[in-house]
Amino acid sequence: MHLIIPKSYDPKLSVKETQQAIRYIRETFQTEFGKELNLSRLSAPMFVTKASGLNDNLNGVETPVSFTMKDLPDEQIEIVHSLAKWKRVALKRYGFDMHTGLYTNMNAIRKDEDLDNLHSAYVDQWDWEKVIAKDERTMDTLKATVKTIFKVIKHMEHEVWYKFPKAVHHLPDEIHFITTQELEDLYPDKTPKERENAITKKYGAVFLMQIGGELHSGKRHDGRAPDYDDWQLNGDILFWYEPLQLALEVSSMGIRVDADSLAKQLKLADAEDRLQYPYHQAILHDELPFTIGGGIGQSRLCMLLLGKAHVGEVQAALWPQAMIDKCEANGIHLL
């Protein structure tokens, strides 16, 4: 069990007040976010068939929760890890126009997570996806979208301060952009996580770009599935989080693979067997729109804006009893 206990922690809001703040943040943010990025709210599945190839494989080692259904006895059904692939198919299926897109509430179970202050087996995020033109698959498009998302998060800080002034956690005014290779060059003797902490503490908010491929050291900064993000055009939004003295990832996002980058990345990941799936074939034959998309953690955002010490303060999940007891003894009330 890895657990950080902040010194003299004060949750500021009662459990009931926290629940009111959670509702306010979630309802307000998704409305503003959808408006700024020209996204429509859509319903989404909690499970997909394994044969569709639509589930997110994450780092390739996590096992999805799976089951069978009475009326589909020959299908293996999987709880989604995320909707990274499903969204792109949905944009085509529902006929979304250029520069429009969707967002949805995504709920998942990641049973192989290592539980700590930030990680839960229950995942709740806004998954979003937007149609772009082929010539917009650029770093400029990626950075402009990140700046828009950052602007909405900053606006939410002011909204939360107005409603819950004693609880709001203040955020930096700007976001800094850096690639994983630039970060390795800057801190060659640090681990990837130590690098993230160092750069995010320095700037307050960072968009760390180009995650998934090998660096000059021959190592990867972090794992990333090879079949949705283009590893040259993706990244994570990180905030320096003073209560826990670490970088808090709020969003993972990127411009999605085209036929060339999909084939290249599947080969690098030794995952070319995935080319058998309908989703991958559709990309290879240019049957899906070019898109940009990602996920924004709902509980992570609530945690960030309210200065909470544990994600379990803003979502109801399961935790080891030893963690529950230690948190309660230090004023951290898990839902």
TrEMBL record:
Catalytic function, reaction form:
L-aspartate + NH4(+) + ATP = L-asparagine + AMP + diphosphate + H(+)
Q: What's the gene?
A: asnA
Cell location = Cytoplasm
What EC number(s) does this enzyme carry?
6.3.1.1
Query: What family is reported?
Result: Belongs to the class-II aminoacyl-tRNA synthetase family. AsnA subfamily.
Keywords associated with the record: Amino-acid biosynthesis, Asparagine biosynthesis, ATP-binding, Cytoplasm, Ligase, Nucleotide-binding
Q: Which organism is it from?
A: Lactiplantibacillus nangangensis
Q: Where are the transmembrane segments?
A: none
Output the NCBIfam families linked to this UniProt entry.
asnA
- Protein name, per record: Aspartate--ammonia ligase
Can you tell which superkingdom this protein's organism belongs to?
Bacteria
